[in-house]
């Protein structure tokens, strides 16, 4: 949990859009991993195995009545802890960034995450796995049970949608 807890929680959040659901799913993932560690074959990294368990748990969770009933339209924002780190002094600078630049950076990051969270689950999933978790195309294909070509096309379309929306918002 120390090594991969944040990755599991973040991925669950990206798929569900809910902090509460991400908390529940993360706990369930590590219980499943603990109970099923004897099934881990070592063919993929431990992180990939946990991400796969997370994805499968989210899909099971989505099918549950509780999840369907508690879902509503939500506004998504980036985790406050992630943006808090941007206010620290940069290693190459002795001057702290201005409050205005911090707010502008946080607003930009929030806009990006808002756009990403508005993508379809299929698009969002490949984008997050590739960019956030730095997984290779073949790893993503294995996790999602789709071809590498499908991963590439979804990733390309997702990046294009994010770039277009950022450009539209900048105007």
Report what the structure shows:
- By secondary structure, the chain is mainly α.
- The protein has helices at residues 5-16, 19-36, 46-63, 65-70, 80-84, 99-118, 121-132, 137-144, 148-170.
- Helix 1 runs parallel beside helix 3 (46-63) and helix 6 (99-118) crosses helix 9.
- The chain is globular, with a radius of gyration of 18 Å.
Q: pLDDT under 50 segments (min length 5)? A: 65-93
Q: What string gives the helices and strands in order?
A: HHHHHHHHH
Coarse structural class: mainly alpha
Overall geometric form:
globular
The residue-averaged pLDDT reads 78
Largest sheet: none
- Helix proportion of residues, in percent? over 70%
Give the helix tally.
Answer: 9
How large is the radius of gyration? 18 Å
Family: Belongs to the sigma-70 factor family. ECF subfamily.
Domain RNA polymerase sigma-70 region: 3-65
Domain RNA polymerase sigma factor 70 region 4 type: 111-161
InterPro entries: RNA_pol_sigma-70-like, RNA_pol_sigma-70_dom, RNA_pol_sigma70_r2, RNA_pol_sigma70_r4_t2, RNA_pol_sigma_r2, RNA_pol_sigma_r3/r4-like, WH-like_DNA-bd_sf
């Amino acid at each position: 949990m120390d090594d991969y807890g944040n990755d599991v929680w973040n991925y669950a959040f990206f798929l569900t859009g809910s902090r509460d659901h991400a908390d529940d799913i993360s706990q369930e993932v590590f219980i499943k991993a603990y109970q099923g560690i004897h099934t881990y074959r070592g063919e993929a990294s431990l992180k990939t195995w946990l991400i796969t368990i997370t994805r499968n748990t989210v899909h099971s969770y989505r099918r549950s009545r509780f999840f369907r009933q508690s879902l509503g339209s939500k506004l998504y924002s980036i985790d406050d802890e992630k943006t808090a780190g941007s206010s620290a002094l940069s290693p190459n600078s002795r001057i702290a960034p201005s409050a205005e630049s911090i707010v502008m950076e946080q607003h930009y990051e929030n806009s990006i995450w808002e756009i990403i969270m508005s993508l379809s689950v299929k698009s969002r999933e490949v984008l997050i796995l590739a960019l956030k978790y730095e997984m290779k195309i073949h790893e993503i294909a294995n996790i999602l049970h789709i071809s590498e070509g499908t991963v590439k096309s979804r990733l390309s379309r997702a990046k294009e949608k994010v770039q277009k929306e950022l450009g539209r918002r900048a105007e």
